[in-house]
Design brief:
21% of the residues lie in helices and 36% in strands. By secondary structure, the chain is α/β, with parallel strands linked by helices. The chain binds inosinic acid and magnesium ion.
């Protein structure tokens, strides 16, 4: 798979440093709260597994699966493929995403979850690609900013592949067929 990667943006050490910084901030901010981590599948599964181990306050986790992407292009249409298992009233929600791109997915999820009356909602994204933003979504915790390149690894996919790479890298553009 390495031969499909043009350049490595974040290696394992760098990812660990970013994730532990986020975990520290979240742990500080959620003291005495009722933290429920809402993971957005599938892209965030690896990030969440590492992030939760850096969170030192009590917390629960649940998952939602959303679909809006086909290959490397967003369809703009967001669908819930799998919903949360329980009501979220009274919980302090932290939505955890792998990457914030157009913002269509997160703005949809945000509105949807707000209507279920949680105590609070914040957003944590490992990566942010601000150049491509279409919706006004403002993450509360951002691991790192990235340029407008298609990236894979550490949970991020292209056509469901490359999620198992332990690092994040730029996919060779010639491998992307739109
Ligand atoms: P948005 O709705 O455009 O913000 O899309 C967010 C979702 O698109 C993310 O959760 C990813 O699953 C996917 N995505 C956006 N950019 C990339 C990328 O560079 N590589 C892999 N997936 C991406
Ligand atoms: Mg994805």
């Amino acid at each position: 798979m390495m031969e499909d990667i043009e350049s490595v943006l974040f290696d394992e050490k760098e990812l660990a440093r970013i994730v532990s910084g986020l975990g520290e901030r979240i742990s500080r901010d959620y003291i005495g709260k009722n933290l429920l981590i809402v993971g957005i599948l599938k892209g965030s599964f690896m990030f969440i597994a590492d992030l939760m181990r850096e969170i030192t306050v009590p917390c629960c986790v649940d998952f939602m699966a959303i679909s809006s992407y086909n290959g490397s292009k967003t369809s703009g249409v967001v669908r819930i493929l799998m919903d949360l298992k329980k009501p979220i009233e009274g919980y302090d929600l932290l939505i955890v995403e792998d990457i914030l791109d157009s913002g269509m997915t997160l703005s949809y999820i945000l509105e949807n979850l707000k209507s279920r009356n949680p105590a609070s909602i914040k957003i944590c994204t490992l990566l942010d690609k601000p150049a491509r933003r279409l919706s006004q979504v403002y993450p509360d915790y951002t691991g790192a900013l990235v340029e407008d390149r298609f990236i894979v690894g550490y949970g991020l996919d292209y056509k469901e592949r490359y999620r198992n790479l332990p690092y994040i890298g730029v996919l060779k553009p010639e491998l992307i067929d739109e």
